[in-house]
Amino acid sequence: MFRKTLLLAACICTLSLAAQPDLIGKVAQNKSDSAEKAFQFTTVVQADATPVEDQASSGTCWSYSSGSFLESEMIKAGGPSIHLSKMYIARKSYEDKAENFVRMHGAVSWGDGGEPHDVADMYAKYGTMPEDVYMGLNYGTEKNQFGEMQAMIKGMLDAVISAPNHGKLTPVWSTAVSRVLDTYLGEVPATFQYNGKTYDPKSFAKEVVRVDPDDLIEFVSETDQPYYQKTMMMVPDNWAFQLAWNVPMADITTIIDNALQNGHTVAWGGDVSEKTFSWKNGIAYVAEKDYSDMSKEEKADLFNGPKPEPTITPEMRQEAFDNYTTTDDHGMHITGIAKDQNGKEWYIVKNSWGTDNERDGYIYMSKAFVQYKTTGFMVNKKALPAGIKKKLGV
User: Fold this and answer.
1) Per the structure, how many domains does the chain have?
2) pLDDT score of 20
3) DSSP string, 342-377
4) DSSP string, 29-54
5) Tens digits of per-residue pLDDT, 319-365?
6) Are 283 and 307 in contact (CB under 8 A)?
7) What is the CATH number of the domain that holds 220?
């Protein structure tokens, strides 16, 4: 999930605040004296979720956000409240992505990024394991640092697709990629112990996590494609060329609300580079006026309490997506609904940038922001409203 004018390409999803002095500077421009006091929230519903983590210097927001979503689904299914290995899922994704990259002769994106369906797909194909079994920290670092690893793999893949062996690929190039991943992330254990029992990744998924990957379905909302049918998710990080259900804009919040009200959560992806998205303050909403048209005083007042928001239309959504003002920047985990002091509902959203903000790692996103800036989201089909489930035929 990348691109946007706020930062250089890949910075938002790729790095945590601690590793991003540029992002810290941008966020600091938006801070109020105390948005925590200016915005008073009362929780309406809150689903179970594991503690906030930090993706650090890795573009694995998709793995952390959708992995956190999978953890909440595990709890909902009666399983334990534990962290699953985000790096195991990321590693399996990189192996599959490398195969796609080579098959497509390099004509697809390469990098850390991914989508919610990547977590569901890797979980279905390869299972999962507890985070403490596979941390992905194999060379002495305390947090993820993927820059060197990704540059090395990309260099290898570029060499592979040039087919220097008289125009013919060797059968061992994928083994070389796996060895690099072993070096940086560590070798994947074939079996491991959990609560005194031996598992492999697939048996752990089946017996402990107990979430059916076929129940996890993804949505987009595009006006140029038929509704209630599957369409291509047209973002660069859809390296797997997955299809998602296309629904009207109003269904975005209808589906999310129904999931949360029934104890499920939502894996969310979208644009977080608007000036009205402030990680420091833990607030994201849509301003009535474009930031470039605001006075100095209006800019300074952005996070000093709730503000009126425009009515979002499907046409506004599509225009922003088409002209790149909405891009696929970041993935987070929607876990609840809250009301502000004026009675307006906001979503409670778990991020993966650590806990160093006013909301201890969470952010409150207005429903207008979610309608406007969502690029895709994933829910358990059991959490769908009956009417939408009937229209989809699931």
Assistant:
1) 1
2) 35
3) TS-EEEEEE-SB-S-STTTTEEEEEHHHHHHHEEEE
4) TT--S-HHHHS--EEEEE---PPP-B
5) 999 999 999 999 999 999 999 999 999 999 999 999 999 999 999 99
6) no
7) 3.90.70.10
Residue type, 163: A
Give Cβ neighbours of residue 104 (< 8 Å, ≥ 6 apart).
Answer: none
pLDDT of residue 165: 87
Q: Specify if 2 maps to a domain.
A: no
Q: Write down the pTM of the prediction.
A: 0.92
Paired residues of 192 in beta bridges: 199
The residue behind tokens 């129940």 is 215
- Both structure tokens of 314: 């499907």
Q: Where are the alpha helices (DSSP H) in 236-366?
A: 249-261, 296-300, 314-322
Residue 121 lies in a domain: yes
Question: Residue 356: what pLDDT?
Answer: 93
Write out the residue range of the structural domain in which residue 185 sits.
Answer: 11-392
Does residue 305 surpass a pLDDT of 90?
Answer: yes
Q: Is residue 4 part of a domain?
A: no
Report if residue 5 sits inside a domain: no
